[in-house]
Design brief:
2 domains, single chain, 19 strands, binds NADPH dihydro-nicotinamide-adenine-dinucleotide phosphate, alpha/beta
Length: about 600
Amino acid sequence: MSDNRNISQDRAEEIRKKYQQERERRLKKEGTDQYNFAEGALEHFADDPYAGEPPAREALVEDLDVLVIGGGFGGLQAGATFRKNGIDNFRILDIAADFGGTWYWNRYPGLRCDVESYIYLPFLEETGYMPTERYVRGSEIFAYCQLLGRQFDLYDRALFQTKVAGMEWNEGKARWIVQTDRGDRFAARFVTTQSGIFSRPQLPGIPGIADFKGHIFHSARWDYDYTGGTTEGNLTGLADKDVGVMGTGATGLQVIPQLAKSARSVTVFQRTPTAVGVRDNGPTDPEWFKSLPKGWQKAREKSFTDLSSGRDVECDLDDGWARFFRRMVEAAKSVPAEEQSAEAIGEAQEIADYEYNEIVRARVEENVSAPETAAKLKAYYRTLCKRPGFSDEYLPIFNRDNVELVDVSGGVDRISESGVVVDGKEYTLDCLVLCTGFELGTTWSHQAGYDIKGRNGALISEKWAQGLVTYHGLFSHGFPNIFFMGLTQTGTTISVPHMLQEQVDHLTFIILHCLQNGCKMVETTKEAEAGWQDVIAEKNELRRPFQEACTPGYFNAEGKAEDRRSAIGSGMYFPASDFFEMWENWRRDGNFAGLTIS
Ligand code: NDP
């Protein structure tokens, strides 16, 4: 993939128009409501195929310092950090049967993390673990989650296959009273919540989906009993099967090559192509890994987040992400000092982004021999309208005789008993794999699967019906002693565990202060919350033109940027490094600005 391509003003204008046309072709008036989130007749799509019935256990009645809801990276990092700080009276709940969160649910063949493992896997210096490759398999990440559980002694604190059934603030006791579906009853001084973002299947709202008589499942509930094989592929059960795949996002990119290598035929139903950059994976050099100086992981992580936050720094890491962000930084620098303004920088970055995507589109032609197929695989929208993809395997797979690409940008007519119908033509299938993403566009409480009753009976589902209202993402007025982790109104990073660790460090600082000083209640003030909402509104306003020009996806509420009910929709675009520095200074000041501590 050549590194440079300068485009003329005319070409830039053509691209702008093309992006607009492609967006309009895909806009659906239903936005996020076009999907089903494994509900009603489709509820079974969310069943756990990896675990049997939960083992019997006694219901617990416990008084806790902290209740951690969610055992993915957020819960693991919280648990590990608590242990390191001498906070031991905590529990971790998860509906899954093990730690891992996203990496518990997603076990599909070909799964890898698209962020470099050296920064993605937390605590590498403490565990001494060397990732086998630069971008490791999902199975290795899941095993690493289990290793963290063992290393930080978290298994005896974990309650798996356990769901929150009710949660209410008791003002007199200054405790959260939390009940579970296993009959447990906890009185917790503090609660952290991190409901998984890539866990709950999102299903296409295509008529007839419940009628399909072949085999059908979502990528995050992979049915190896049917397909055979493992996460490494070799899906022997598909050798005599005609398989359809819907969804060509980050997941589809990894699944489709594996299906193509094993199935008799694969039909890919593509609504929007992903921009596919170079992956360039490889094994870890043990000598290099051994030579890394103390503190290397934090430094590497920080330089990557700084670069993606638009800072002109040396980045220890050089990959597709870093090269894209470097381009953006260089574009900003190209604006003469006397002309520097948000608008001028935005324009320079828009052109740099067009140039970058011209290179990505040229890569399709380099890899796909049939021009008609190559044309369909070219992405026409700006980087970061959707999650960019990286693969060296995906594009060439379309040169195989057993792979067909069907453009469904105009929509699928219906799913019949025997296949998928597009423009009146039925594609007969034995199996349909849905790589159609995750529930990300609904409200916080819908995604969490439980409601929270705060002070005076106020419900979080009501307070956040039109989107999150928080102070720094972590706190919400009327809901004391609870920390909302995840993609809340916070500084978001490409490497999610980095963001989660910043949140964990911040909330641990506050919890420790309370445990050591006997304070009972921490709550954000109304004023601080309102002030933070103003900051967010201002940031969102700046981002709005970009979002409104984007092709539909979960980053812009499926093309309805005004729909801000979800955590992502009501989020903010605060450069992560600036946000983390703000928190660092806040902790250093030590006056707990914006919080009431009683
Ligand atoms: P996405 O939400 O990104 O993609 C869903 C796909 O399903 C899209 O191609 C979408 O098309 C398609 N789709 C939805 N409805 C229909 C329909 N009715 N007809 C046809 N196609 C349809 O989900 P993914 O699982 O791919 O990825 C979700 C996120 O998970 C990523 O953005 C990433 O953050 C994370 N991820 C990370 C990985 C990693 O390596 N770290 C790997 C995999 C996922 P359209 O684009 O038109 O909406």
